[in-house]
Every structure is written in C-alpha cells, then in structure tokens.
Request: fold
Amino acid sequence: MRGKIQKLFPYRIQLVEKALIRRRSPNLDPRIKLTQRKFHIDFFLVGAAKSGTTAVSEWLAAHPSVYLAPIKETNYFSTDIEVNDFSPEYVQNTFLDLDNYFAREELPQVHISFIRREEHMNRLYRDATSGAILGECSTSHLYSLAAARNIHAHNDQAKIVIILRNPIDRAFSHYLMARKYGFTALEFREAIRKDLQAKKKGWGISELYVDLGMYSRQIQRYQELFPPGHMHIIKYDELLQSPERTFQTLCLFLGIPAIPLPKTKKANSAGLARMEHLNLWLTRSGLKKGMSGLFPSKMKESLKKFYYTDVNLPSLTEEDRRFMYDIFKDDIERTARITGLDLNSWMID
Reply:
C-alpha cells in the first residue's frame, strides 16, 4: 500500500518523512546514526590552504565529540568551482572516482574530492551520532565566491574557523607543494609571474599562489553573513608556537570539552622529486596516478623515500620576500583592520 501511495504522491511522502525526522531530531537516542537523516554541519574550517588546516582537522577528528567526514575536503559548498574546468595536472592529483567510492560499504579516508550530490554528503555523515558535532574542512570554502553564502543557507548558526598564515610564507609553501607534485619546475618568482598572468584562472585551473593569500575580501564574505561570536580566526604562528593552547581555545569556541592535544603525524611535508623533469612528465601524462595504484601502501611509502628528497630544497630569499610583500602589503593592512588582529610580524620596514 505504501509503495502505491509513494508512486502517486512521491513529493508529499518525502515532505511528511522530513517533517517526522525534524520532529524526532531533538530527542533522538545518541546511538542512532544519521543514515536516514539529512546532514547538518555545525562548524566549518574553511582555510586558508597551506596554513595548518590538515593538522587542526586531525586534532578535531580525534575528539570524541566531533565527527568529520571520511573525505576531509568535500568542497561541497564551493559551487562556483567547476570540476570540468580543472587542468589535466590537477585532475591527475585529485580523487574524483566518486561512483566507485560510494559503492563501497565502508568509506576509506580521502584527503580531497569534489562532492556535488546531496545524497553523497548524507552518506559521508551517516555514521555520526546525534551526540557529536559535525564539521567540514575544505580550504576552497575561503576562496570560493559562493561558499560563504551556501554555508549560511545550510546553517545560519554555523561556526566558522579560519587559519591565517603570512601570505608570503603561504605562497612559498604552496609553490614547494606544486614543485613536489609536478605542477611546475619554474623558479619561485617566475612561477608567481606566470600564474598572475594566466589567461584562465581559478581553483584547479591555475595555482592561485597570490589569490589565496588575499585574505581581506575572503574574510569579509563571512563577516557579512555570520556574527563575530560565530567566527574564530587562528594565526598560524600561534598554532606553531602554542598548539596546546590553540586547540583548547578552539574547543571552547566550538562548545566541546577540552581534551589534551592529540598526537598526529606530520602532514604535507615539503620535498622535491630527485628527477624533477621526469616528475613533471609523469604528472602531466597521468602515469604517476596510474602507477600509484599498482603498489601496496607500505611499498609506496618506501618508493616515496627514494623518489623524493628533502635535501637542498629551494629557500625564500630576501629578494623573493620583498617582491611578494609589494604584492600583499595593502591587503595585509586591510586584513588587520577588519579582523582586529596584530599582523605587524607580517610587515616589512
């Protein structure tokens, strides 16, 4: 009988089911999972990229009162980012095989993908209990023109966490990552100039070394939608110097019990391929990604030690820093003004 009614009135059935779920939600047994409920995210760690978000997300994932999806960066709310526009190099280094992924019973951990279907988001959060707060940690959500608005539409009471790193150091760290993964073999300033002059720019299209560090307008998009009490900005230097205190303060902001700082492995360490031009070709051809699936995890870790080196890595010169400071100076001043943060350590006399 229910099946016949559903065929006749599918939309009304869905509305009734959603209404019943909303009525039951406040009193749900904390052991009940989110399998039959729509995901509802409580807090967002939105960036900036290359500013310690991986470490902080790992701290939060270890907290018993927090649930993060098995895909760290879903990029779900960055609806202005078009997957079909991605460069071949970006596609080769990004997990996009979502049909096979969601066909699995247990979802493995993945660093980044681009989720565009609501049912996929529901699946990612289905194992969370009603006693946990749900979080999301996509760094594109700071850069995206659409994400702040989409997040506010999803949950206007959400809490927003932003980590800010000196944009010069952020850009150089980003550059080292691009060198490591075969996106470029250019020297630093040459790579910056080429990226600034790119005819087509965007997430997954160009590197955005400078764009991602222009924080003031990105932060303003959130300030225009969320009250100050729902925004928490962490300075990267404080994250490095006082990780325990930074984590305790973050727990307080999120309204969860403070716990000792979880131990995490070092993430996203810098390195260069020993044969850099071969690395560039393997990345662009797609062979590196294809070959990585041929080896078990332990063997891949051993091969990485041979393939990459952390000896004689490029360093940021004073000339490089001055060149970048001239680009970022005005935005650093605006960022300090709108956030009230002391950013004097980012300034150059």
The chain is about 45% helix and 10% strand. Confidence is low (pLDDT under 50) at residues 1-35. The first strand starts at residue 43 and ends at 45. Strands lie at 43-45, 66-68, 71-73, 110-112, 133-136, 159-164, 231-235, 272-273, 308-309.
